[in-house]
Amino acid sequence: VFPSLAQAHASVANEMYQELGQPSVFLFCPTEYCSSLCSPSPSQSCYLQTIGQELLPGISVIWTGPKVVSQELSAALLEEVEGVLRRRPVIWDNLYANDYDCRRVFLGPYMGRAPGLMPRLHGLLLNPNCELQANFIAIHTLGTWFQSELGSCANPDHTGMEMVAALGDSQGPKERSYSPQEALELALCDWVAEINQQALEPGR
């Protein structure tokens, strides 16, 4: 029926999107959802070129980065993806995902994402550890990164906004740019406080 897989995908997605009344959030995950799955590259992929041309503009496209689990995300790559898809991608971030190896749990800070990515994104989804309580640092530091990115968008002269947070007895402003180490320390302080509060609850 369809001359290519991409045209089949775009046609079905478009029909579903219209049948549902063109909802404000409608996510489409392409078969080529990261650079390593594209041949020969995202910008030269016939599949992605067709998706970009045929998919209705109100449909958001998911992208994971250079790989399925990407250690780094750059503005240059997102610009390339935006060009071929004709829309800013929604990042499905697998940095903390451990469903492929549940013997590993990732407790480090959100990192490896270049400053100033926000203008290149239509959204960001974080795929966390399978263990619910192990995601405190992941979500907390993502929030700190996001706050820094918002400040960068509001103040283009800076890479981030001033964050005033309590670290011990300190009440002074922190650095303007996002610091993974600083974000980790803030998350750990809040996590310890949360653990101590839970320990005082009846029945704990």
TrEMBL record:
Coiled-coil regions, chain positions: none
Record's protein name: OGA GlcNAcase
GO biological process per UniProt: glycoprotein metabolic process
PROSITE patterns: GH84 (PS52009)
Domain spans labelled GH84: 1-150
Sample GO molecular function, one term: beta-N-acetylglucosaminidase activity
Signal peptide limits: none
InterPro entries the UniProt entry points to: GH, Glycosyl_Hydrolase_84, O-GlcNAcase_cat
Pfam families membership: NAGidase (PF07555)
